[in-house]
Amino acid sequence: xxxxxxxxxxxxxLGAFALAQQAVPKLTPEEMERAKExxxxxxxxxxxxxxxxxxxxxxxxENLLKQGKGVDYLKTxxxxxxxxxxxxxxxxxxxxxxxxxxxxxxLNPVPEPPPWTFxxxxxxxxxxxxxxxxxxxxxxKRNWENYFGVILRDVGKVAIVxxxxxxxxxxxxxxxxxxxxxxxxxxxxxxxxGRDGWAKxxxxxxxxxxVVAEMRACLDARSIDTxxxxxxxxxYAIIGCxxxxxxxxxxxxxxxxxxxxxxxxxxxxxxxxxxxxxxASIVSSHFSPEWIVNIKEAGQTWLVDYDKIDKKGRPVSxxxxxxxxxLHDGGWDKSKRYFLVAANAMKKIVVIDAKTREFxxxxxxxxxxxxxxxxxxxxxxxxxxxxxxHIKDNKIAVIGTDPEGHPEYAWKVVKMIEAPYPGNxxxxxxxxxPWLIVDFPVAPTPEANATLCAWQKDDLxxxxxxxxxxxxxxxxxxxxxxxxxKDGTEFWVSAWGNxxxxxFIVVYDAQTLKEKARITGDWVITPTGKFNVYNTANxxx
Amino acid sequence: xxxxxxxxxxxxxLGAFALAQQAVPKLTPEEMERAKExxxxxxxxxxxxxxxxxxxxxxxxENLLKQGKGVDYLKTxxxxxxxxxxxxxxxxxxxxxxxxxxxxxxLNPVPEPPPWTFxxxxxxxxxxxxxxxxxxxxxxKRNWENYFGVILRDVGKVAIVxxxxxxxxxxxxxxxxxxxxxxxxxxxxxxxxGRDGWAKxxxxxxxxxxVVAEMRACLDARSIDTxxxxxxxxxYAIIGCxxxxxxxxxxxxxxxxxxxxxxxxxxxxxxxxxxxxxxASIVSSHFSPEWIVNIKEAGQTWLVDYDKIDKKGRPVSxxxxxxxxxLHDGGWDKSKRYFLVAANAMKKIVVIDAKTREFxxxxxxxxxxxxxxxxxxxxxxxxxxxxxxHIKDNKIAVIGTDPEGHPEYAWKVVKMIEAPYPGNxxxxxxxxxPWLIVDFPVAPTPEANATLCAWQKDDLxxxxxxxxxxxxxxxxxxxxxxxxxKDGTEFWVSAWGNxxxxxFIVVYDAQTLKEKARITGDWVITPTGKFNVYNTANxxx
Lengths: 541, 541
Hints:
Number of strands of chain A: 35
CATH class of one domain in chain A: Mainly Alpha
Structural class of chain A: alpha+beta
Oligomer: homodimer
CATH architecture of one domain in chain A: Orthogonal Bundle
Helix content of chain A: 10-25%
Radius of gyration of chain A: 24 Å
Number of helices of chain A: 8
CATH topology of one domain in chain A: Cytochrome Bc1 Complex, Chain D, domain 2
Strand order of the largest sheet of chain A: 1-8-7-6-5
Largest sheet of chain A: 5 strands, antiparallel
Distance between the termini of chain A: 84 Å
CATH superfamily of one domain in chain A: Cytochrome c-like domain
């Protein structure tokens, strides 16, 4: 009798435990740490650290379980990819063990991401070369305005390459998966931001460029820019964070943190509250002392005014405009008055007028637009236009951007070009080149990944010239990111391979599309984005 | 043997349970609901819904336990009060059972407060009398500009009283513990905000004033104001929320929600993130189309610009200024250019210049300043001044507010008046009255609570005239909140009693300080704040 009571009580307790543990596969503490790391590196960008979804689907365990998505289902998806998601297993980026680990991890409760404070950011701040010890004039004899900053993505470095001689000038550590580089207005400094939230300033006037200041703004970041408005050139910089969702205004010469502003807040229209409300792209206005800051999940564009930040109480003015959800990247039209930014999951391009500081238009385009900064030029019929490619379909949308001179075409897709492949990430041109160059690094086949296409800017009806880049397939490399040199006489494209194999950067003639040179070397590991000093400083693309 | 295993396993499981429950007193679900309700009503204002502390101490259970504060300690404090905290038990506001319940509740984990979205706020919105069905001109023959809106706090109502005849004109339900009333610029509408987040508009042009629109902005709110800048009069209103920490801009005629902005964010200087970052006082600028919005825990003053909110994307500009932590209430100087606001736990008054839109000064005053809107006048020696009383000490701080005419006194305490008691909540004057009137509703003795004092504005060295209001002690009432009539010939003070006993509002001659009249009636239950239409619309205090 007594034994029955014990056993009965035990069964009840065991049942309660089992219920709480239902369908949640166990992870060891070591597995949990490893899974969190992989999730941060490969998954959080699209699905969010809180797994609420954005560009990618919601992955909260209660939703997965409700939909009956167990370990096996998740392993299949992670292995083979789905929609815009890479085939992590098949591509060999995750091992079968890692795929299994991630499938189990996703059914566990979402770990609380760590907090981060202004004081913590400030504690990481270091000025490596004080401002008064930096060169007063360029020390180098090189044509530093034609330097290229090349991201060596998977080794966390930036290479400075002489665009005239194609020589390597310096290699600098810039943090995990450096995302972008931006230039000071005069081009002297490169500002880098890594996905680990580290911001760095590189001084290009030195004989050998060095990191002169660094600061960890947050735990995950994607964007940085400097103050470019007349009278404020290089005075401030801004860093846009994914986690915690916030931006940080810093001193433009030293990265000293000045003000941190949270972007957690309410989604436009329905107004549910989002802890993960990330800062996507940022550009520096040429019409006002402000940055245009795009808040991804909320669907808001914030105009962040920096002209009073030196006054008592560090005032920053923020104009909060509801635009479209899932804002990502974008760039200027030819006049640099209109900023065009992709709302990727909404299949739209949002237009902000930097002069009137207003939301002008929201333009339906193709599936998952990904312009980078896009490409702008003057078309003989449509006038000034700006173009974006797409990740999920094989379209290039060309949009009229001249409401005064060409009102009938303004804020409309004047031409939807058919490309041979989907999976475009970047599109680029230069005022001196007749060509619009397009890559396909996230297309589904290695052949497409190795291919580049060029359209004639003034006759979009003509078939493109497309070519497979020799050597790319052999290196298992994806050709990615086009950048022109200062004079617009050539453009560079990276062969993004894997971390074990040096690849190359190929240099093409901007008129003939003939290969002119190939930059190689042991150091050419996972090259991705490249930023020409003059073009980046002057927003030429 | 087998039995031993069962028993052993059982003991282990039971131990794990016990550990998880250590020192956490059990509450039934009914007790939990009741405790949450009491906490919201009596405690959250000072300690915060998340119990992180603000005006009051941190009450998170892990901190209480760490400090060895158990049920008995907490019961003693809740019964007898501590520092600025009322003696909830002794005063009979909480029964001994409720005191015990609250002590146990505080040792339990902080319940997650409910969320609230823009869509939920909008779903509560009702226009009871459409704008085109409202009077085009005053329908009443009464002198409506001399109406007083009297908060009947503990019954959730507002009485409209004719200031000329002292007759009751209407009683309107306005929600739990209505906090303040504000007027449209023309005085026609009263805007009310309850601590339950309900906002209402009362139309005073009707023969019998009615609630013409209502909307629940959030779950806990303290402030409301309207657009008063020339050209925008009555166009918009703003509601400041405690939970969720946010503000909501609404249509000024109908309360239709337009934009909700979260105020969750980083504390000034150290920059730790706060979910509970509440909107304290709000005033409407006379120099720009903006409101001055005070964010309590972060120590920030936000200038919220409403002049573009009708454009595409509903732009709102917010200038975020770091001022001082624990901002509370405040009011204008005589010129209505400078807004002075208490940072109560910092023992400071913050000054904002509405013309230059800058943070001007932070002035040390006494312990826990509580100005209400304060009092302003011109002193023969110091020039224009503004004064605040204090909750925790018996001082009245008089501050010079004329940096141009009297720079030697500007932003300094020119006179610290000694009052007979601490526990002041409100202070008031009128340009036509020689007196500065002061109450003591939160002083520690019933005699002090029943007392009012008057200082001669032009000779602050003279002893005050103080008197105990006849009838207050008998009604166990605290005399609270002074308001002048339109002409400044009389002032009214409420006798704040308990919910079972009607009390009175006493009317004094503003020159002689003699009692002129007493407003009584069954409806005079827990009268507190009173708002004269003309003085509230024109910021006269």
